[in-house]
Design brief:
The complex is a heterodimer of chains A (311) and B (568). Chain A has 311 residues and is of the alpha/beta class. Chain A contains 14 helices and 8 strands. Chain A has an 8-stranded mixed beta sheet with strand order 3-2-1-4-5-6-7-8, sandwiched between helices. Among the domains of chain B are: 221 residues, no CATH class; 140 residues, no CATH class. With 568 residues, chain B is of the alpha/beta class. Classes of the chains: A alpha/beta (311), B alpha/beta (568). The interface between A and B is medium-sized, with 24 and 32 residues.
Chain lengths: 311, 568
Amino acid sequence: MSLRIGVVGAGGFGRAIAQSSARRGHEVLLWSRQARELPDPIRTSTDTADLLDCELVFIAVPARHAVSAAEQLGEVVDGRHLMVHVSRGLVGADLKTITKVIREKTVCRRIGALAGPLVADALAEGRPSGAILGTGFPELTEMVRDAIGGAGLRIYDTTDVVGVELASATVGFLTVVLGYAQEIGVEPGTVAVLATRGMVEISRIGQTLGAKESTFLGLAGLGDLIAAVAGDQRPEFRLGRAMARGADLRTAIGEVGAYVEGIEVARHLMEHAQRHGLETPISSTFVAVAEGRMSSDDAIQALMERRVGKE
Amino acid sequence: MLKRFLSERPLRLPHIKPYVPRPSDPSIFWFNSERDDVVSDVVKRICTAHESDRGRLEMALNDAAFHEIRRLERQRDEEARERLGYWRSMIRRIGKMEDSEQRRVLHTIVTDMTRDVAGNFDPRVYRFARRAVPRLVGGVMEPRRLTKDLMASSPEALGRVLRVQGDLDHLRYLQNEGSLVFVPTHSSNLDSIVLAQALEISGLPPVVYGAGKNLFTNPIISFFMHNLGAYRVDRRIRVSLYKDILKLYSQVMIERGYHSLFFPGGTRSRSGMIERHLKLGLLGSAVEAFTTNRVRRIDRPVWFVPTTINYALVLEAETLIKDWLMEEGQARYIIEDDEFSQIDRWIAFFRKVVGMRGACIIRFGEPIDPFGNRLDGNGESITPTGRVIDPGGYVEQRGEPVIDPARDAAYTRELGEVLAQRYEEDTVLMSTQVVAHVLYRDLVQSTPGMDLFARLRLRGGIGLDRETLRQELGEARDRLRELEGKGRVRTSDVVKEDTPDELLERALTFWNGYHDSTAATLEGNRVILGDPSLLLYYQNRLVPFAEDIASPEQLQAACEIENLGVYR
């Protein structure tokens, strides 16, 4: 049965969702702040009121625009609407997840977070890929599979919504670290140590925020990180490489030409970890490097000199 | 023998001159005429759910027999002598039974269990109780005034001790428009009594509630509980069918418009912390009641009233914190030997609190719909910006309301989170809690790195300068005021108005002389810390706010205190 699908945001991911849904025979309306032209049968609008008739709404805007997008949607949607976001960020110093923002600003409750190694191009072109949907509502999973899943996209699901969102956001930061490490020429084995121990660190932080460890080891965490290292051209990875070449953070972001949420998230994560007395050597060291307080050689030395314990 | 007789067949008044309810009476006044219908509705739904699938039916019978045999073998009492034979014989025959016999056995078990659960409501008992209870409680508090209070129209002692807060006009309006479900925090076995009194003095209706069967063994309490709408919950019974019956009984009552009450914390907060992890079974029954009515095209709203019960002095504080600290504490679900069962502790408790202004504050929070939305004055669900929405939309699929247990379970989990958040915002911090927090934080600060249990052994070893303490109390209070301004928490009038010295003295007066151990004592210009576990219990109410009210020097200690809430 054809669904009425709304997509908020006309960036790469928003357009990919709209194309994928339309290809599967659903009615699609793409909303953006500025008027856009998209190929038929995708309709476009700049009026959020047009989303009222949609059953399922995808929010595909960066975390820094999530609050205002949710506020605008809050004026239109109600309990009938099901909503999914694909943002990889968190909001503010208190590490607020996007589903929490949606919950605060709208009355939607059937909410989910789509994450994992899925990239916009593969989705738009229907190339085989996989993703993970965090939601407590099985009917939402079914609807998202109906909307964009199928032979080209395997969508797994979990009820650990906060885990999916935290893993997705923190993998962004870890990707920057690995991009940096590769550029300075560390061995593959060292990259593997940084990746796996870094994942342990962020999962430890995630657990204090209510996430499950297993989610970090699944598609939302490790799966996503493998895709990043395997070379799906993430901006985070390029940012790490640019920093390793000596660019300061601002210049590196300019070089990449895309907004990277990972660094901001990392700073707030470190503050949170400190408050809870958690050890996060890799993340803390890299934040020090990113802020120019430590050289890359000193960073590697500091990490290697730490006492080794059980895994 | 008598205990069992009373718990299974509570006394009822004879049917001479029964009370005929008036249209203006609360819905529960009609309950007795509907009771059999409620029981058969519950039995029918449970049996229908099991009968269509032989595997499920057989599993339910086996589960019932297995758990009942285990329970009765442990009990070794009169009930065991009577019933063990039945269950043992049944468990041997289940596999050989024809379908029709299995269905008949299921029907018998479910009917017996539902009848045992179902409550009773006698308006005559209700009228008597609403006049007598406050006077009796007042009499316990001030024996000299007992005779006067029994004659007077409004007993003063209870009024001085118990304060009610919240938008009572709104709740009084809503009681006639839908089903109210009161969901309070739970600190003491006195909660039901205090809450019933708060409803009464606020002009709010009597409610249906579940009460542990162990409470029915006291003939007087059993008589009142049984005749005032309480349904019996036997926590010893582990049978799945029984849990289904309890939930469905609650659901059917809410569907039919009876106002209800249950404690989502499940049991009294052992630690003294504000409940965070709520039990979702009964909450779910209210959400499903809303859905079922919508599917049947009955537009009867269900509203939750987050309620906090705030005591400056907790009757069972010492037993509760001891229980929390013991590893096996988690498993000790029913405590039968605490202060609640000792009448001398009751009297000591009431005498202590009577002289203390506002020793108990009940706060009825802003009501919400089953999906956590706020309501406008007319009981309509609204968005954060005040737009009216139809809550029925939440249970629709493609425009039609449908039953979907998995979806409702997810709504219930979310509702649990909303309630936990509302408990924090509606908690009224009392003098003893604020003082205990400042004292305990000083203890943590002066013993860095020490583990919780080592710290709790430091009785009498730590002394604090009174002037420093005065300053810290003042600062903590100021920061709490700021949090109150942001809607994060509330403080009692006493906390707002007392000077730091008065706060300290008030807290010491509350604790000392009632609790067996001493929380702290004054020695000249020094405050000597007594039993840290008692301080821990009272200060635990402030765990979510510890970091916000700490100065930079106190931050580390505050974080350590906050972590109590994270890991426990």
